[in-house]
Design goal:
Layout: H1 2-15, H2 30-59, H3 64-88, H4 95-125, H5 128-135, H6 138-150, H7 156-178
Helix pairs in contact: 1-6, 1-7, 2-3, 2-4, 3-4, 4-5, 6-7
Length: about 180
Amino acid sequence: MMGMLLALAAVVAVATPDRDGTPGGLTRSRNGRLAEWGLVLFAGLGFAGFFLGVDRALALGAGPWWTLVMSRSTSLCIIALLGAVLVARGRAPSASGTRAVLPLLAASALGDTGGNLFFVLSRSETTLAISVVLSSLYPVSTAILARIVLHERLSRQALLGVALAVCGVVLIGIGSTAG
């Protein structure tokens, strides 16, 4: 239990903007902050829906691979629908702009599929609570990658989050092997 609490605290420490407005150059206006919190809530509900959907699919007997195929298919349908809405509104990106970002989109899709695969496999082996907490640590890995690849300086708050994540994962690992 302590490991899960530390891991959740790590996510909050890494994902919450510092006093200077980082990460992401978040706006300082009241309306901007409200919009950001709306997006946070929407994203959280999306993650919760995904986690609960995977849990329900596995409980109903769908194997991990069918669960992954269905989650990817659903994502593809949502992306296609959003693309159709953009085209209908005349806001579709230019063909040359689209081609330029295709490698990044492909890499993002592969990374997302890999993350979903690890979550589905984790959920088929352990409890939903442990799988969700460990999956929620992705902001920590993003901060670490930003440090390694982009040579970004991590704030004290982000460094605290990374330390909490390491301790939390160790405690979760100890707790899952002890039981």
